[in-house]
Design brief:
With 245 residues, the chain is α+β, with helices and mostly antiparallel strands. It is built from 3 helices and 9 strands.
Length: 245
């Protein structure tokens, strides 16, 4: 009973403008007349949802003054988003805190500041509207904003496409291997799929000088940032076993 293991370096190729193929592991077993392959591939699609991460930090000489300042900014941002037509269900709170500054934070805080209020939200909108939402929030006082998490409406369908591509690649490589050995590749007899963990959401980027509490308000005449949506990518790894006829 002889087993032959061959490692084939897969070439990278493009699918929908962005695809990465990993090295493929093949195992041919004479005792069970099968070829086993592990293959990885990915697909990409245009983003359909933009989750804009917005937030602010406000300071005060004591807890009460910091909270009062934070309350003004918080409600100002909420009102600005509502006035712009953003639906309530599209805005989700992600974090909020009222805390004293430690000795390291005091070095970068405004003079006289001893307490800090922080709050953040995730705002779901159309990708084409992401720059406008960010612009509205920043001009209303969101001085810690900028991260955008790009999504598709049906993430499972995109993941299924990645799995199908990986399985097709596994069969293609198995057929090439079988042909090189002078044998005929049969039907798929086993397959398993492992999707990689979802990418972490981006951390909000602190923007010095954005809005009240960080150096003054931004004028309404300033144009929004130029933001282009990113393509959403999903990858999958499959382990496939093909029969040898």
């Amino acid at each position: 009973m002889m087993k032959l293991k061959i490692l084939v370096a897969a070439a990278c190729f493009v699918i929908s403008g962005a695809m990465l193929a990993s090295a493929q592991t093949l195992q041919i077993s004479k005792d069970n007349r099968s070829i086993a392959i592990t293959a990885t591939d990915s697909v990409a699609a245009e983003a359909e949802i933009a989750n804009v991460q917005i937030g602010f930090v406000a300071y005060g000489a004591d807890k009460d003054s910091a909270y009062a300042s934070g309350s003004r900014v918080s409600n100002g941002i909420a009102k600005a988003l509502a006035d712009a037509g953003l639906k309530k269900e599209a805005i989700q709170s992600t974090s909020q805190s009222v805390a004293p500054l430690n000795q390291f934070e005091l070095k970068d805080a405004p003079p006289g500041a001893a307490f800090r209020v922080m709050q953040s939200w995730s705002v779901a909108t159309d990708p084409a509207d992401a720059a406008r939402v960010l612009d509205i929030a920043v001009k209303a006082g969101a001085n810690q904003s900028g991260g955008i998490y790009w999504e598709v409406k049906d993430s499972d369908a995109l993941q299924a496409r990645a799995s199908a591509k990986a399985l097709a690649r596994a069969r293609s490589i198995a057929e090439q291997m079988a042909a090189g050995l002078g044998i005929h590749l049969g039907a798929l007899i086993y397959a398993s799929n492992e999707a990689p963990p979802a990418a972490p959401r981006p951390v909000m980027m602190a923007q010095s000088g954005f809005g009240p509490g960080a150096g003054g308000a931004i004028g309404s005449g300033v144009a929004p940032l130029a933001i282009n949506a990113r393509r959403v990518e999903r990858s999958a790894t499959v382990y496939a076993v093909f029969a040898i006829d």
